[in-house]
UniProtKB/TrEMBL annotation:
<dbReference type="GO" id="GO:0046306">
    <property type="term" value="P:alkanesulfonate catabolic process"/>
</dbReference>
<dbReference type="InterPro" id="IPR050172">
    <property type="entry name" value="SsuD_RutA_monooxygenase"/>
</dbReference>
<keyword id="KW-0560">Oxidoreductase</keyword>
<keyword id="KW-0285">Flavoprotein</keyword>
<protein>
    <submittedName>
        <fullName>LLM class flavin-dependent oxidoreductase</fullName>
    </submittedName>
</protein>
<dbReference type="InterPro" id="IPR036661">
    <property type="entry name" value="Luciferase-like_sf"/>
</dbReference>
<feature type="domain" description="Luciferase-like">
    <location>
        <begin position="19"/>
        <end position="204"/>
    </location>
</feature>
<dbReference type="GO" id="GO:0008726">
    <property type="term" value="F:alkanesulfonate monooxygenase activity"/>
</dbReference>
<dbReference type="Pfam" id="PF00296">
    <property type="entry name" value="Bac_luciferase"/>
</dbReference>
<dbReference type="InterPro" id="IPR011251">
    <property type="entry name" value="Luciferase-like_dom"/>
</dbReference>
<keyword id="KW-0503">Monooxygenase</keyword>
<keyword id="KW-0288">FMN</keyword>
Length: 277
């Protein structure tokens, strides 16, 4: 089982330089991954929020071995052509360390769709996400992409260069654990990041139901103060340690410096991880 740091880019963590320094410390402390949230608004307060892609570029330049990525991007907020370029550029910059977490997003916690004039309809979002998830692997091959869908069109375009990773950048699908659509999407890709999981027993049931290849990843979110052994025993291949910025940079730095499976930090404020997607 691998273990990763998982950070919201809020408050002090809105500064890409601060996060890049934390990533370098995480790599030195032998963490396996360093993942960040991707939001443009959160809650009702005028909160400082960092850009996931700029921050991850800084992380890539400050590290050399740790896996990294956005966990997760709300696919309907993106244009597939831009996303194809961004993912390849980050994969090249990191020399093949990118994992792309992808979901639908949620309008409840910041109005990230409705406040920007976009529909918050989840059915529409699902259709858009499925289109983008069909376009990205095709774009990463370097072959001409021909796509005429309900929401996006790409007419005979080659996306070069191709990713550092071959045959493609890994995609983990995030979504409600009990819903059929996220499970279906995940089965077509490389990993499943289920939310609204009550305990390790439920997580084990998800793994049994998914029935993917041995190389398929199952990522579980565990609060920083909780033991992860039950999730390891249930079959999780990754543990994402949720770290809220409210505990402060000194506590975050200490947690990271102590390495994987640290415990004993204060209860974080803010919504639980089950509400993130």
């Amino acid at each position: 089982m691998k273990e990763a740091v998982w950070l919201p880019l809020f408050d002090d963590l809105a500064d890409p330089g601060v996060v890049a320094d934390l990533a370098a410390r995480a790599e030195a402390a032998k963490w396996d991954g360093f993942f960040v949230w991707d939001h443009i608004r959160w809650g009702e307060a005028d909160r400082r929020i960092g850009d996931a892609w700029v921050t991850l570029a800084a992380v890539a330049r400050s590290t050399s071995s740790i896996r990294l990525g956005p966990m997760v991007i709300p696919l309907p907020r993106y244009r597939p052509a831009s996303l194809a370029r961004q993912t390849v550029s980050l994969d090249l910059l990191s020399k093949g360390r990118l994992i792309l977490g992808a979901g639908l997003g949620n309008d409840r916690f910041g109005g990230e769709y409705s406040r920007f004039g976009e529909s918050p309809d989840s059915r529409r979002h699902a259709a858009i996400a499925d289109e983008i998830l069909s376009i990205l692997p095709a774009a990463w091959t370097g072959n001409a992409v021909h796509h005429a869908g309900e929401h996006h069109t790409i007419d005979d375009v080659r996306f070069l260069p191709t990713p550092y990773q071959h045959p493609a950048i890994p995609i983990w699908i995030a979504g409600t654990a009990t819903a059929a659509a996220p499970r279906r999407r995940a089965a077509l890709h490389d990993g499943f990041f289920p939310v609204n999981v009550r305990n390790a027993s439920d997580f084990a049931d998800i793994i049994l139901a998914q029935n993917n290849s041995p190389s398929f990843d199952f990522a579980a979110t565990v609060r920083i103060q909780d033991d992860a052994n039950d999730y390891r025993d249930a079959g999780a291949t990754w543990i994402l340690r949720e770290i809220q910025p409210e505990i402060g940079l000194p506590a975050i730095s200490t947690l990271i410096d102590e390495g994987p499976r640290t415990k004993g930090f204060p209860e974080p404020n803010g919504p639980p991880s089950s509400q993130l997607i």
